[in-house]
Amino acid sequence: MATLQSLLARTDANAAVAWALTAGLLGAVGQFWRVGELDWAVFTVLLVGVAVTIPVVARTPTVMLPAELLAAAAVPVAVRATGTLPQVTPFVAVAALGVLTVVVLDATTSLSMTPRFAAVFVVVVTMAGAGVWTVGTWVADTVVGTTYVGGKTELMWDLIIATVVGVGAGLLFDGYVVVSDRIEHLRAATGHTGAESSPSEGSLPGSTQQQRRVVRLLQLLLVGITIVALARRNVTLVVNSGVPLAITFVPAVLRREFDYTMDPGLVVWITLATVLHALGAVALYELYGWYDSLTHTFSASLIAGGGYAIARSVEHHTQAVSFTRGFRGSFVVLFVLAVGVAWEILEFASGGVAALVGGEAVLAQYGTTDIVNDLVFNAAGAVVVATLGSAHFEGIAAWLASRVDALVRGGS
User: Fold this and answer.
1) 289 phi and psi, to 5 degrees?
2) CA distance linking residue 311 with residue 314, whole number of Å
3) Which residues of 153-163 are buried (b: 16+ CB within 10 A; e: fewer)?
4) Backbone phi, then psi, for 181, in 5-degree steps?
5) What is the rounded average pLDDT for all residues in the chain?
6) Mean pLDDT, to the nearest integer, of 305-313?
7) 21 close to 67: Cβ distance less than 8 angstroms
8) Which of 24, 96, 285, 333 could crosslink 280 through cysteines, CB 3.0-4.6 Å?
9) Confidence check: pLDDT of 42 > 90
């Protein structure tokens, strides 16, 4: 399979069913509006908009999304209309919208992705959507006085459910593409072809020798913190300094084991992020409320770079994939939000383990405000990289290009 556009169906039977489902979704918009569920009314309008994009662009009503995919997207809408499974249905709906959106983007823009990468993208979109929903509901509760967020535990279970739903939706979509017999209808249905030019690689400031000296000094600082933590038998601090110290040696391992030399400036960037976190674990997180926001923004910028490198490496790997500049930036932000959700789940799990076995949690989580604050500043770091710094990760992307087969199944 070359692209997702092979899923488009040009048959009267499929179109009839798809249009009937679209009409049903329009009816649901009115129902949600009457009962005051404006958020679901808006969401269902989005589904309808995605559904009709293909026939509008193709200029024929017979080219529609596969009816079975549209039906799957309509299920959470129907379930919500009955008032059942209130915690699960929003995230199932987001995952379904993600599936439809990637197919439509692939068919109507210069964007092109393989089914495997699209499945990963669905997972990312669902988790990122949960993060956006968390921030939005918290803001609504704070500003308007709504009661969407019931508490930290309830919020975290929402994020866990969203993650499980996203992974499940990605796996199902990947399996669907494997068994689907709609694999011959390509971009000709909509007539969109072409790809954007690739950005050039950037470099961080400073001479190589100066950058390496900075790295060594920062590593010595981490060694000192780790020694103090061991002397005090502070397990939490050992983890929060020892793990960052280990991360600083990853570039050296890549050079020795894989013959890949990372840009020294980028090594400084990575090392500084780990040191900032270790210093926070020593005392700064407790002394200064703003310090946590600083470290999250800085760390998120590295995660954003990693997301960009992954997306670009897939592009380098296969001609079946082509991402627009706007998609690359969007993917970076969504990827960071998804990783941020995963990190919050890890912190929540750390607290749960500590409660079961006793002792202090290795990763601290202080409440809903802390969770929202982390997600917001994660997004800030992602936006900085997406708009200003993505070119610095082109070297990593090129190196990863031969190692991403798992993300490009179906490509060529």
Assistant:
1) -65, -30
2) 5
3) eebbebbbbbb
4) -95, 10
5) 79
6) 82
7) yes
8) 285
9) no
